[in-house]
Write a structure and sequence with these properties.
Length: 141
């Protein structure tokens, strides 16, 4: 009985096919992952601004005016990690007593989206002033 030498392994063609399949899968998965990760970071801005809005309404109920200082609010939420917090300014009426506006600007690496902004007013999310409204793939609204 002769024992044949059996060589086990992959051929060059099989390895090439596997590499091509992995490349195609990565081409679809990486952009979706990037968008999902940026959407989570954008959600942080929306959560923070919703907390500011609720605190502003409580302040307005007690003082009959809105405040121009975040430090005056009774928020337990810390500043967002991925956004720069602007100043609270008078809103559409031009008077802080009955309207306000606050804009957060994305800082750091934005996965190719640039430094977009998220703005809230006493009415909630301000679509016209927020640059994120033009980015539906990452806008959590």
């Amino acid at each position: 009985m002769r024992l044949k030498n059996i060589i086990k392994g992959f051929t060059l063609v099989e390895l090439t096919v596997i590499i091509v399949i992995i490349g195609v899968l990565a081409a679809f998965a990486v952009p979706r992952y990037r968008d999902a990760a940026e959407r989570v970071k954008a959600r942080e801005a929306f959560n923070y601004l919703a907390s500011v809005r609720a605190s502003q309404e409580r302040f307005h109920a007690r003082q009959n005016t809105y405040t121009g200082s975040i430090a005056s609010l009774d928020m337990r939420t810390g500043a967002p990690k991925y956004f720069k917090v602007g100043q609270i300014t008078a809103g559409g009426s031009g008077n802080i007593e009955n309207s306000w506006s606050l804009t957060l600007t994305r800082q750091g690496s934005t996965a190719g989206y640039g430094a977009y902004t998220v703005t809230f007013t006493e009415q909630g999310f301000d679509v016209t002033s927020s640059m994120i409204a033009a980015l539906p793939e990452i806008n959590p609204m």
